């Protein structure tokens, strides 16, 4: 049976998602791989498992308040905008706006899931259970929920499942009526699990194309034939929205042309960002054949854009064994 609650015409769990016992995409040195990570959404978990051109809350389970985004503007931009539900009045499976979903759920309490956006653009966590701000002034952050027992409960479940399976796992879950439901569990694909390769220390600076020393997962990629590079300096000079969108389309065509080759894809800021100022807008299908994905955060006008650390395509990168590097 589908786990959920009836909210007006809609049926869904208030919270669902997918969790991983190992986290190969760590955007801060304090996040440990073995502590696991969860992708959290309002509504049906299809929104966290399937790539739908939207966002989920990424939760490192030992550091649940830590997130890739820094400023309130970035948090709002990278928050969930659509919600998957079952329409019980004949509409079947639907993807509705988060405003419609929150209004339908408001009488049951939504303070655990939202933050309020004030007129100055700042975010605040609701104090009581009742939230009176219009849904258009709410952002899905799950901050209050993450201040409770939920992250530690998830971590214990992941540890227990990994011990039982004897391999790293991921599992789909739903939270409904205060209970955590494990919906599906499977072994987690992993990038060269346990393989540590010696890094040569005799490469001269003349021969070194680039180097990075933080947030590097284990792995070795050999025999790279091509490097596809979107130079951040060139991309920053593009003023037309249409031309920036076309860059993403060109990347998709190159991805298909090089499908049988071994290539590295390098570009500015955040691959997959919907905000064209933060990176190249692509779907996973546009980068799926790359062996290595690199996000370049080059300082410009005193500001270096934050890379996404692979979080836009977390599960796809894991399953496709695409190595990720922030530069």
Structure description:
This protein is of the alpha+beta class and 327 residues long. It has helices at 46-49, 72-77, 98-105, 143-146, 150-165, 232-236, 241-257, 314-320; strands at residues 5-7, 10-12, 15-20, 37-42, 57-60, 82-87, 92-97, 114-117, 123-124, 138-140, 169-176, 179-187, 226-229, 263-268, 292-296, 323-326. Strand 11 and strand 12 form a beta hairpin. The chain is globular.
- Hey, roughly how much beta strand do the residues contain? 15-25%
Helix amount, in percent?
10-25%
Pattern of helices and strands: EEEEHEHEEHEEEHHEEEHHEEHE
The residue ranges in which pLDDT falls below 50 over 5 or more consecutive positions are none
Instruction: Give the strand tally.
Output: 16
Q: Helical stretch count?
A: 8
Terminal CA distance: 45 Å
Strands in their spatial order, largest beta sheet: 5-4-3-11-12
Describe this structure in a few short sentences.
This protein is α+β, with helices and mostly antiparallel strands and 327 residues long. Helices cover 20% and strands 24% of the residues.
């Amino acid at each position: 049976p589908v786990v959920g609650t009836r909210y007006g015409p809609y049926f869904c769990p208030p919270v669902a998602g997918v969790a991983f016992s190992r986290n190969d995409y760590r955007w801060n040195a304090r996040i440990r791989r073995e502590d696991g990570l969860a992708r959290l959404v309002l509504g049906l978990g299809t929104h966290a498992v399937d790539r739908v051109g939207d966002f989920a809350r990424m939760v490192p389970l030992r550091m649940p308040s830590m997130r890739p985004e820094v400023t309130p503007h970035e948090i709002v931009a990278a928050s969930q905008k659509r919600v998957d539900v079952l329409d019980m009045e004949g509409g079947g499976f639907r993807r509705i706006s988060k405003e419609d979903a929150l209004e339908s759920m408001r009488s049951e309490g939504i303070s655990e899931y939202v933050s309020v956006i004030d007129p100055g653009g700042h975010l605040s966590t609701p104090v009581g259970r009742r939230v009176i701000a219009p849904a258009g002034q709410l952002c899905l952050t799950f901050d209050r929920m993450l201040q409770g027992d939920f992250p530690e409960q998830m971590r214990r479940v992941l540890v227990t499942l990994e011990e039982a399976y004897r391999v790293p796992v991921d599992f789909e879950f739903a939270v409904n009526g205060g209970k955590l439901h494990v919906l599906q569990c499977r072994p987690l694909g992993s990038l060269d699990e346990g393989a540590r390769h010696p890094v040569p220390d005799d490469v001269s600076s003349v021969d070194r194309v680039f180097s990075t020393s933080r947030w590097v997962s284990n792995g070795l990629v050999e025999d790279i034939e091509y490097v596809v590079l979107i130079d951040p300096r060139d991309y920053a000079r593009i003023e037309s929205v249409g031309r920036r969108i076309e860059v993403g389309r060109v990347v998709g065509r190159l991805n298909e042309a090089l499908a049988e080759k071994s290539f590295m894809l390098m570009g500015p800021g955040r691959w997959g960002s919907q905000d064209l100022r933060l990176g190249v807008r692509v779907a996973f299908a546009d980068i799926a054949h790359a062996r290595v994905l690199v996000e370049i955060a080059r300082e410009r006008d005193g500001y270096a854009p934050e890379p996404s650390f692979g979080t836009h395509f977390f599960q796809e990168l894991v399953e496709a064994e695409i190595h990720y590097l922030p530069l």
